[in-house]
Amino acid sequence: MKKFVSLIGILGGLVLLQESFLPPLFAGGHVPNIAFLAMATSVIVFGFSAVLPWLVMVGLGMDIMSYGRIGMHVVLLVSAAYLISLFSKKFSIGYRGLGNVTLAGMAIGGALLNHYFVSDLLNGQPLATFRSSESWMTSSAFLELVAQVGLFFLFYFGFRRLRRLYTAPEYSVATP
Amino acid sequence: MKPRLFGINLSKMVLIVAAFGLLVFLNPYKLFSPVRSVGLYIIYPFQKLAYAGSLKIARAREFLGSIGRLKQENTRLTEENQRISAENAALADAARENDFLREQLRLLPREQFSLEAAYIISRDPYGAGNWIEISKGDDYGITTGMPVIVSESVLVGRVGEVHSHSAQIILITNSESLVNALDAETGARGVVHGEYNMGIALDLVLPSDTLNPGERVITSGTSEGVPRGLYLGKIDSVTMSSDGLFRRAKLEAPVRLNMLQTVFVITQSR
Q1: For residue range A104-159, what is the model confidence (pLDDT) as tens digits?
Q2: pTM
Q3: What's the ipTM?
Q4: Residue B176 DSSP SS3
Q5: CA distance, residue B134 to nearest chain A CA (Å)
Q6: Which residues lie below 8 Å from residue B1, measured CB to CB, with a gap of 6+?
Q7: Are the Cβ atoms of B51 and A49 closer than 8 angstroms?
């Protein structure tokens, strides 16, 4: 029960950061997609099945607070998380040396795609952000990208440490 | 072993996406409105705290960034002060002229509105100029469509969705926002709408009407619930529409919407 309440608190805090805390700090709508990044990295570290309930909770929280249609963020988060989980397995096996960079690229690319795609979709103006090219040439867009990269590695190594803490170490006995 | 066509993860994903996709498609607004109200009510104090804290950090950051410009600004302000002192003598005359103009334009001074002050507690994270959320709702008599202003009757948006303790404000920069407006100097009429959630433009002005850069644009009073005379912005540049049928002007917004902390909802025009 205590674990569940803590989890709700953490996920609620994540939604609050995304909806209320970050927007005034980043100009021109270039707000880092912290909720998406946290969910994407947790899918990479913990696996899709383990994170699925979190995805639904965060998605519902975002739907409630963003005045959008209920279910919109859940659909986008769950489907994006599934794709990330699918490709992260393949990439982590195929490109061991570039594993972290590839995963970062996937999560950040997904976050940016999600941010601008969702934004335009929710506003009923497909690709409106891309039409206003001016907004992509500003320092705030660069700041958003830097923040996305920083947040990804913060979550990625944070979650990995958390997983190590809560997983019993495996010992092997050498046989002669 | 025969490979499975659908993995467990894929089945779960398809099931959830289908269920919530159906909700998005059907959009049972009346069913979810109370859920949203309760959710927003619970999170409201945290939202207020988070937004105010964030705004303080943003202002502090802006202040730190501007230290280098302060000395230059100080010199400019000293000169400005001298100029203003010289102009001060003419102010009494300007005030009389202002009263006359207000009468002419039927600009509504703030004393003529019933205002409800409210804090901004959140905003659209996907587009700065799309919508904001305020700390008051239908408990304070706020209803959908009411105009929202700041400082000296500057229109910033209209009330959208309303809950008991909060309300969504659709900003004038929102692409779906439309307000009937007129050029205060020439009387040219048109419609002010948002542009990509970033700026505002006066559109659908007849080519025979005159628009000049620097002229003020105000509400015409013909939009439902919006009184005449609310300030919208100053004309920045004038062009013809792509089909050549109308004049359109890009407006310079009088306030920075991303730094607002308090707004006033016009609940009644006296």
Answers
A1: 777 777 777 766 666 566 556 666 655 554 556 667 778 888 888 888 888 888 88
A2: 0.68
A3: 0.76
A4: coil
A5: 11
A6: none
A7: no
